[in-house]
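User: Hello! I'm new to structural biology and keep hearing that structure can be predicted from sequence alone. Could you demonstrate with FAD synthase? Please show me the input and the output so I can see what each looks like.

Assistant: Of course. The first part below is the input, the amino acid sequence of FAD synthase. The second part is the output, the predicted structure written as tokens.
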Amino acid sequence: MEIDEAVRGCSDRRMRTKYANAVYVVQRAFALYPFEEVAFSFNGGKDSTVLLHLIRAGYYLYKKDSGDVAEMDAVKNCPLRTIYFESPCAFPEINSFTYETVSTYGLPLETIHSDFKSGLEGLLKEKPTKAIFIGTRIGDPNAVGQEQFSPSSPGWPPFMRVNPILDWSYRDVWSFLLTCKVKYCSLYDQGYTSIGSIHDTVPNALLSDSSTEKIFRPAYMLTDGRLERAGRTKKTNHNIEMNSVASNGMTSIEGEQTISRAASIIVVSDEMLFGTTEDKLGAALCKKLHAIGWRVSHVAVVRNEIDSVSEEVERCKSMDDMVFILGGLGPLHSDVSLAGVAKAFGVRLAPDEEFEDYLSQLMGNNYTGDRNEMALLPEGITELLNHKRLPLPLIKCRNVITLAATNVDELDTEWDCLLDTQESGLVQAKPFVSKHLGTTLTDVQIAPVLAKLCLEFSDVYIGCHRISRAGPLVVNLTGKDNQRVEAAAEKLTSTFEGQFSQVDSCK
């Protein structure tokens, strides 16, 4: 069988492993379910094209292993019931490729014109169907929580979803298609990397030829598979989009003044709770956030326990725009931050092949077991933030960013890279300005004046701290309007003539 020979004869060890695991799932499905009660969902895309040829190879090997030599020539194309949900919004190229492929391999096609759920309900009523092969991969929106064999979701018609390529990456898909030299939809040679409907799919801008905006390189030339869906975007009027951005004011001074961003910081460290070490990173991160106009609403130190991390993330992720986690990242038993994040979002940890590539380049094969456990990331919600100055990408899960820094210098580097990475979501707002005034007056003497000042200058934060119980009191005035901060400071100092002097913020 040409597919099996092509893969087993290639030099890509990972491709051979992925192929072997996938065809095992296919063979297992044919062993579990009658052939006539198994179907294949085909949509003309790259993933289902890969799945088609894996099913052909798996079925051939299944028959070969069963000793049914007489049927070998008849089963090479695996005439499996094939379901195609045809949509008026589909690209013409997808439709033509689908029907051409069905004809080439002699697949009995069942075309459905309704939505996926209604179509399946009708199909299962008409023909008994116990299992359906689906080309779902980790990273797809509907992949969360699925295994190679996953029963259909509650409320759906009952059948077994069979996902042979669930753990395949974008690179694996193209490695297989190019190795086997099978035909795929022509749109992928025009810069499309993930194809939806004609209304929400454009060529991936990352494949644009620098000399002209109308020429795109083939999909297999996309170097970062995590950006596969970068072309899945609404086709909007450029002028409307630009006006929308302008009205939001993200690039104007007026807009900056209206931006209000808040962040939480979670430090994962038993050692800090034991008093063995001190939290320097949390304090440094507060200053960095403050410098770009973000307010830090919450800083917490939690134990190196999955539940402790999960509970804190759960509390903070819906309360603030961004949550930063420090500590608990790595291969040790106490490195539980990512597991805690996964639990907080209700997803599992799943292997991320792209991240495993980075780890392999950095540390080689210096880990135990069949898989690098550090490459297990929260499934379906993880985005890797790459930067040329970082040995490994930073990990972002929705609005939670896990930092790998172990000291302030490393934090400086990671922070600069975050600011330089648009995907981080760190919108720079108008920075805060502060004024710090010291006095030897007692708390009782200045308390009534500060209370009135808070009412008069409600847009200015007014707080106090003492260097020591017997030492001077420092009044801190912070806001985004320098004139208001200066006015509040002038009102305070004029009330107590000669009793206040400006001090350094650290004193």
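User: So the tokens describe the shape?

Assistant: Right, they're a compact way of writing down the 3D structure. Reading them back into a model, for example: The CA atoms of residues 133 and 290 lie 51 Å apart.
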